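TA notes, week 10

Several of you asked for a full example with nothing omitted. So below is the full record: structure tokens for the whole chain, then the designed sequence directly under it. When grading your own attempts, check the secondary structure regions first.
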């Protein structure tokens, strides 16, 4: 499949992308552990089939020190032993928050309670916004067919401010 357009080279697309990036930067700077953020972004991107975002978040996580074992197992996190209970709670919330059309109840009370058990108010706010933002980013990438494979860690750092 060929990309349909580059949202970053269009003047309006670049303007919106900069603001989108700044919201993501606020989440990144929260107290929600960065490793958890990376795992959530990777898992949601896998579910949504966004090649660019899988490329982006797997490479950023590896550059931040995430292990290959954990990166490879995030797609099967329920059947693995390498994630903490807190990470499992975040991944469950991320999956239920992503699969809204598949899960008629949205995020279950049980999943919400598990997340709240492990994350304080600010971290929970960051997690909820993170799930929403990565889902939006995935949809952008899938709609315009942004291809994975060319991302280099830090390449969007100049978009802030």
């Amino acid at each position: 499949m060929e990309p349909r357009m580059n949202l970053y080279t269009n003047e309006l697309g670049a303007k919106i992308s900069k603001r989108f990036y700044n919201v993501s930067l606020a989440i990144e700077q929260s107290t929600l552990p960065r490793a958890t953020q990376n795992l959530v972004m990777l898992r949601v991107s896998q579910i949504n089939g966004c090649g660019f975002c899988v490329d982006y978040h797997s490479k950023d996580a590896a550059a931040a020190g995430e292990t290959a074992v954990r990166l490879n197992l995030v797609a099967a996190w329920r059947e693995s032993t390498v994630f903490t209970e807190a990470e499992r709670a975040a991944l469950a919330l991320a999956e239920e928050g992503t699969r809204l059309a598949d899960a008629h109840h949205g995020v279950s009370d049980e999943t919400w309670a598990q997340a709240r058990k492990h994350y304080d108010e600010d971290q929970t706010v960051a997690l909820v916004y993170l799930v929403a933002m990565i889902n939006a980013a995935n949809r952008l990438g899938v709609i315009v067919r942004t291809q994975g494979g060319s991302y280099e860690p830090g390449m969007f750092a100049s978009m802030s401010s």
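The mean pLDDT is 94. Use that as a sanity check on your answer.
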